[in-house]
Amino acid sequence: RGGLARRSDLETPAWKEIFERLEARQATFLAQETRFRSPEYRWPRDPLHTWSRVWEYPYVFSHLEEFRSTSRDARAPRVGDLGSGVTFFPFAVADLGVDVVCLDNDPVCVRNLTAAIRAVPTTAGCVDARLSDSRLPLDSGEADVVYSISVIEHVPEFESLIEEVRRVLRPGG
Fold first, then answer.
1. For the chain, what is the radius of gyration of the CA atoms?
2. How far apart are CA 169 and CA 42, in angstroms?
3. Helix (H/G/I), strand (E/B), else coil: 14
4. Exposed site from 46, 53, 91, 138, fewest CB < 10 Å?
């Protein structure tokens, strides 16, 4: 569908299957939390069960999984997670066989993510964390996909950020 969520979506077998996979991945991530989470990081430790994330994470994950399954490129696709925060989600995405670059403007977040990368294994792809400002720390055309979950609407003058996303996406990305 067009991305509009309905309450009934939470009852579909497809959503339940993806959500169970994401819950398991989050549990693995949180089991290592003492190795990377600092007291300065104040966002929810369990984002999967907060507000709209019950729809957003499965929605994005299902589209990335479809993208990966139809990709004909032998190399691991490069995926940008714009405003990633310190969550399990980039690690779940990396398990699809993609290389995820977490982009965040919060130095505490990047420090915690860097520690999480050392503590939390991935099964197929890899995760990287980079401090980001108004210019994304990616080369032009470097990313195959860029996603953002509940971040862009909080960015003043988001138009320049959208231009940056367009710059870092490969043609057709």
1. 16
2. 31
3. helix
4. 46
